[in-house]
Amino acid sequence: MSLCCTPGGNGLLSPAEQRGLRRQLLLAICAVGLLLLAAYWQFAVDNGSALAQWLTAAAALLMAGPALRAAWHSLQHPDLHGMTDLLVALAIIGAWASGDLLSAALLPILMVLGHVLEERSLLGSQEAIQALSTLTRSRSRRLLADGSYEDIDNSQLRSGDCVEVRPGDRIPADGMVRQGHSSLDTSAITGESLPQDVTSGSQVYAGAVNLQGLLQVEISQVGEQSALGRITALMREAEMAKPPITRLVEGHAGAYLGLVLALAALCWFISRDTQAMLAVLVAACPCALVLATPAAAVAGVAVAARHGILIRGTAFLEELADVSALVIDKTGTLTSGQLSLQRVEVLDAGPGPDIQLLAASLGASSSHPVSRALATLAGTQPLLPLTAVQEMAGMGLQANTAWGPAVLGRPALLQQMGISHLPPARGAASLVGLALDGRLLAWFHLADTPRPEAAEAMQQLRQLGLQRQLLLTGDHAAAAEPLAQALGIERVVAQVLPAGKLAAVQAEISAGYRPLVVGDGINDSLALKAGAVGIAMGAQAADIAVAAADVVLISKDLRRLATAIRLSRQCRRTLSLNVALGLGWTALLTLLAALGLLGSAGVLLAALLHNLSSLLVMANAGRLLRFQDRLPALVTPPSTS
Question: Taking every annotated instance into account, which residue ranges of this chain make up the domain P-type ATPase A (predicted)?
């Protein structure tokens, strides 16, 4: 069984593979405990060297079994990961041959930890696909011919069925509203920040959340034909098209193994010196070379976690260093995802109540997101008394006041109520009018506000070389373009569906760029998977986006994008130096051993010297732990009113 438990087929780790991985981790923990006891006995107890050696040997034996079994399995079923197992086995055999029990124990311990980290990158794509398939796996109320309802699993729905969707429920499948009116939260599906108001005849999609009224939906597309089903299929294609990450050490493992064996054999044939041959094997044990990647990667992952950045696979540390373009979502990523008042355009300030207080009083009578945003204008003031409040779902509401009938709603509602008006140029995501006694008093401009750190974060990314920046959003251009201009993003593609986002990312790759893709919704999952590196805003991201991403930002601070890139580039420099140390030191030591310049005690000297290279590699990797990227406190700009 390989030290690297690779999932087979299209599924996650089988129960047997999970048990095997837990067993390896348990053995590694036990071996570490034995080594700590050995160190204590060696340095704290008089005449404890013999027992310390026995404890070290026990730790080495404990780890030797799985490592040698993995090497044997790799010989029978050779692959890229198997080459690493063979290298590790060669190092262990060489260490045992020289009596270097400490290296024989430490090497497989570190490799097990490295493979556990690699396992997360292998499972990430399958978790993403599984998260999509379970997103709508719940139950629905299906309408029967006699007018009653039955509770069924969503998988039993068929085209033509009619289901009841209550407030708070998800739409179970694509369909059309047959009866009722409500507002739907479609931000995770389409990326549009404003709720979608639906009524009889409106098209709805699986995964959207019903915010208000009771709906009857006639199902039109289920399973793989639904919007979510198509996203799942496209994600599988994106996963297959994503190029594998080539690891330097594994890529040259086969040639290195053959070279070492040939050199050892040549040394023995020429000199007939068994000690020199063993010295070559020990000197060529690629401990430092094999440790170069996991040592730097483990340190990098630990430092990233300390900064609120979770990296799903160590290979993405290297990929982050090479990104050259940015593709970023708007709603919930660059913005807060909540509506706020941008501007009040007063048209009639005649006698009557305070305009903002009147709007807040009307807004407090509704649970619609636009109304909730206006309701905050009252502050601590008492609301105005209203009577005969009537809400027109998706349009607005009207009520009687002491100054006459008041209306708060969309321009279409004002026109329907016979209130003459000329709508201003639409510069915000949502435009709401307030009328009193037939007079239009004011327009309220609302929009999804940008995060306070967004401009600084985009500027930092440009300074790091990501001058090419693209804003992709399912929202309207009127909402996206002003935001992009304020943040210095030159290119905007608005009202784009998930497949369109995927196509845009693939176009960036075809143009020769390596895009960093940042998003938080279901509609971003395809793009996250297709990019060179996908980063999800994990604090509020949809489960599918988190599972599809290579990196997850636990912090809401967008400036951590630059932190991740800076850390990645520092890891790249550390890794390059580690590989140079490992290769250079091993090559020099092997040459000295082959020439017989290590003397009669060549095996022991080679063991000591190659252990020194491992210490140098570990020490160099440890320098990463000093990485700090402190962010200054955010100054939240005052809201416009």
Answer: 138-235
